[in-house]
Design brief:
- By secondary structure, this protein is α/β, with parallel strands linked by helices.
- Helices cover about 40% and strands about 15% of the residues.
- A hairpin with a 2-residue loop joins β1 and β2.
- α1 crosses α13 and α4 runs antiparallel to α13.
- The relative contact order is 0.18.
């Protein structure tokens, strides 16, 4: 497996069958980049549904955490799927509950979310996913290093689903996921918004979808000592979480610079979404989803111009 990994940047790696061609730097590659944020991801769902409804396509896409597990529907071209199943099953204890956490070790039930839901209850269109030329990447944090690893999803099945599960496995309330010789947790721990990774991959005209409003900055976690104790088996993860606010705030500054210079196009909420990370009220999920749709519609024409430059 080590032979199949290519180190892309100081804090990222990628696994899977990929090729990188930087021979023509004038070549335009468009990318869709999706931040995580648990149920703030309903905002992203609204954005990508509008993109799909307007046949806006990208050469590649990358998602972290909720941006991965909801964003995969962009490649499978399933408009409305993410908001539909989240509203329908939000109060189902198999989907997300303290009971699931106690019984299985995962607040978001792994078997329900990554087998029963995509295979039976609201099928994931794996055929469309495979045939869509848009490349799709997800990032997860290696518990041994505290750094982000990236995986190119190719068929929406087995290994891909494991990487998506890993990307969204929040520390403390999720078990680490073993896949491809790695033990992984939530990608947001180490790389909340994978714009640098996509740039390293040659994507040079990117739409970045954020789930926090302009000007938002993370504060140092007041529970750092508690987190270090709870994650004492994974000190590299605990260290990454202790520094997460610094990394995140630096990312926001860099994204703002890219937006001002016209290098990237950013869609973000106009104000704080005010939704719980584990929100189970269908009305709240719909509210945030509609905010995403509204923001996307408001900038749609400008986005089309940006992508065609």
């Amino acid at each position: 497996m080590d032979d199949e990994k290519i180190v892309i940047a100081k804090n990222t790696e990628i696994s899977g069958d990929i090729s990188v061609d930087n021979s023509d730097k004038k070549n335009i590659k468009t990318g869709l980049i999706m931040e995580g944020g648990a149920m703030r991801g309903m905002f992203t769902c609204g954005v990508i549904d509008v993109l799909m409804e307007n046949d806006i396509q990208f050469d590649g896409a990358a998602g972290i955490s909720a941006g991965a597990v909801f964003g995969c529907n962009f490649k499978s071209k399933q408009i409305g799927r993410a908001i539909r199943y989240n509203k329908k099953y939000s109060k189902d204890p198999r989907f997300c509950s303290i009971r699931s956490l106690i019984k299985t070790g995962d607040m978001y039930g792994a078997d329900f979310c990554y087998r029963e839901l995509p295979e039976v209850l609201d099928p994931f269109d794996k055929e469309t996913f495979r045939n869509n030329p848009t490349e799709f990447y997800v990032g997860a944090t290696d518990v041994s290093t505290g750094k982000c690893l990236y995986h190119k999803c190719v068929d929406g099945e087995g290994t891909d689903l494991k990487w998506m599960q890993a990307s969204a496995s929040m520390p403390v309330v999720s078990r680490p996921v073993s896949v491809d010789g790695h033990v992984l947790l939530d990608g947001g721990i180490s790389d909340s918004v994978p714009y640098r990774y996509m740039e390293e991959m040659g994507y040079n005209r990117n739409l970045i979808v954020l789930t926090q409003p302009e000007g938002y900055r993370k504060k140092k976690n007041s529970m750092t000592s508690v987190i270090k104790f709870l994650l004492r088996k994974y000190p590299a993860v605990a260290e990454a979480m202790a520094k997460r606010h610094e990394v995140y705030n630096r990312q926001m500054d860099e994204i703002n610079e890219r937006e001002r210079s016209g290098e990237s196009f950013v869609i973000r909420p106009s104000e704080a979404l005010g939704i719980s990370r584990t929100e189970d009220d269908p009305n709240e999920l719909e509210r945030v989803y509609q905010l995403g749709r509204t923001e996307a519609k408001n900038v749609l024409e400008d986005l089309k111009i940006f992508l065609k430059k």
